Amino acid sequence: MRSSLFRASGVGLFIILLLAVFAGCSTIDCPVQNLVYTKYYLKKGDLTPDTLNGDTLTIFTVRRDGTDSIVLNQGTEIASYNLPISYTSPEDVFYYVMEIDSVIYVDTVWIKKDNFPHFESVDCNAAYFHKITDIRYTTHLIDSIVINNPNVNYDVNTEHFHIYFK
Amino acid sequence: MMSTPNTSTSISSRTVSLLILLIMVIGSAQAQKLFRLEKDSVPMLRGFQVSFDLFGAGMLMLSDYGQYEGAFRLNLHDQWFPIVEIGYGKADHHGDQATGISYKTSAPYFRAGVDFNLLKLKHQSNRLYGGFRYAFTSYKVDLWRENYEDPVWKWDTGFGMSGEQCSQHWLEAVFGIDAKVFGPLHLGWSVRYKRRLFHNDGNIGKTWYVPGYGIWGDTRLGGTFNLIVDI
Prior knowledge:
The complex is a heterodimer.
Chain A: H1 2-24, E1 37-42, E2 56-62, E3 68-76, E4 80-84, E5 91-100, E6 103-118, E7 127-137, E8 142-147, E9 151-152, E10 161-165
Parallel strand pairs in A: 1-10
Antiparallel strand pairs in A: 1-4, 2-3, 2-5, 5-6, 6-7, 7-9, 8-10
Chain B: H1 7-35, E1 45-53, H2 54-62, E2 65-76, E3 80-93, E4 101-117, E5 127-145, E6 159-182, E7 185-200, E8 209-210, E9 214-215, E10 221-230
Antiparallel strand pairs in B: 1-2, 1-10, 2-3, 3-4, 4-5, 5-6, 6-7, 7-10, 8-9
């Protein structure tokens, strides 16, 4: 009886040591891609990709304290670009500036959205995901902007907007 | 164009199928021998056991999550042990040093299943168990992060959710021992391998600590150290 007890306890000790080894190997399982931003793709009228040929595009927004923040600085020959999206504002406003033949054109784009807090783990940074609900814009240099996919999250392959310049 | 099956894959899958069939036939004969109720004069109902998990309570005292858990186990002929485990799991992780996130939840949970005595000589005080559990919990999560500033617009946005309703169903494979110390008092260990079946994480994305299950995504292994009393 006593030897059986010792044998059983020995097995238990082995199991607990095994458990300690496995439990010690805890992992932090955060997504590698953990940035949330919007992707814009330039398109032609026939839906084929477009590129800014020779034109320089700058996009800025206005911060809480009223100062400007440039989010795309003098982009040339671009076929697509990424823009940040605010965590919790119901609407983001961007100003598109382009100089063509010494004339500066400025368009304003308003993006309405719903915001959802997203949690992975206490070890991973907090994030907000979004759903684009509407877009408005002035049309000095922009022809139109179409919402291609309204869901903004960690997926870097999503084309959120298709933008058509005049 | 018609696709032709890959020959090597086809042969190897057939071989594996045959091997599985063979193992099942041999295994089923062995299992019948192993799980057959012993024919002797020992009565079917041999009593009850109540137990308390000291490991979960220790975790709760030493870390920011853990559980209080008790169990009620029926002894059928020293072979089969239907069991119900009821516990109360808690997590209060306040202001993570790296991310600043706080996570709070507390809820009851239960597991139900059966253990089988794997020892050849079954009618003795010490036991070696193998078994399984089905488990369920329904819990609410409070989650927040203070001073969460938008990096571009510089608004202090805050981050948090309160009372998010979540639930989880899972299975556990159990392997354990139970050794008599003196009188009706036993001490026992169990190691568990857990697999989530269904879950509802509410609108928060993912959950972190699940009462009774532990940290989701951390490890699938768990364990208990039980103080057991024979009744």
